[in-house]
């Protein structure tokens, strides 16, 4: 149960850091951590399909967002 609380706290903390980070690159990295923590929470709740879709769709979208941030 402690692992669940660790990843829940990690998701909340990284979500807060996404909106408080001044550097857009750091914000994107915090967003990746937030989505990865949420995916781990889904895996712990035994909905692996949702977790994998979450990782593929959202982390893939963040990779594209990261490319746009670098190109600007």
Automatic annotation (TrEMBL):
GO cellular component, one term: mitochondrial membrane
Membrane topology: Multi-pass membrane protein
Record carries keyword Signal: no
UniProt catalytic activity: a ubiquinone + NADH + 5 H(+)(in) = a ubiquinol + NAD(+) + 4 H(+)(out)
TM segment ranges: 5-22, 28-45, 52-71
The UniProt record lists the keyword Ribosomal protein: no
UniProt cross-references to InterPro entries, sorted A to Z: NADH_UbQ/plastoQ_OxRdtase_su6, Nuo/plastoQ_OxRdtase_6_NuoJ
Top EC class of this enzyme: translocase
Record-listed E.C. numbers: 7.1.1.2
Function: Core subunit of the mitochondrial membrane respiratory chain NADH dehydrogenase (Complex I) which catalyzes electron transfer from NADH through the respiratory chain, using ubiquinone as an electron acceptor. Essential for the catalytic activity and assembly of complex I.
The protein's name: NADH-ubiquinone oxidoreductase chain 6
